[in-house]
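chain and backbone:
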Amino acid sequence: MSQATPVHKRVLLKLSGEALMGDDPFGINRDTIVRMVDEIGEVTRMGVEVAVVIGGGNIFRGVAGGSVGMDRATADYMGMLATVMNSLALGDTMNKAGLTSRVMSAISIEQVVEPYVRPKALQYLEEGKVVIFAAGTGNPFFTTDTAAALRGAEIGAQVVLKATKVDGVYTADPKKDPTATRYNRISFDEAMAKNLGIMDATAFALCRDQKLPIKVFSIVKHGALRRVILGEDEGTLVYA
């Protein structure tokens, strides 16, 4: 049997913090993070260069009540620190699974993680290491979706893989509308016209301007990441 050939050489994988929770109300579910790392390991062994941006919702959710009425910038910095915690957990799980990871932070905490330096990140990717970008863009008022679009453009990724709990973009909410159908592919302009809310507006505009396609797929569906990498009919491609 011939080795399947990846259709992408370098990808930016965007994981939500919530994806790490599994069925738990918040925090990191051990079985879930191990399974995700297994799937990432499978595609890196095909020779695909993988960078990851991860959100912080699973940790921030636990303190969200205390952030009510808080200054927005302060709350955003708390969210960035939550992404650093997730990145450390993901990186450690990768290293234990035999992958080599590097966590790079957009905010300076050098005793914990190294700072984000673009040439260094590119070098790591070329060496076959998985690079995990922590702390979003390093600025308040920007989401981790925007960080994924920004880092994806900076490292020359061929696609942003947005991992969600839904297996693509639908004509309507499939939970509410049983007649909703999944788009196999849709243009940026059409997605904007239909107000499908695939990413926040800043992230979406950045990907569109840079002609950086987005692939939306389910991270909870076993083997979906591998199928996306092999160009199979999985998820929804948003193209320029």
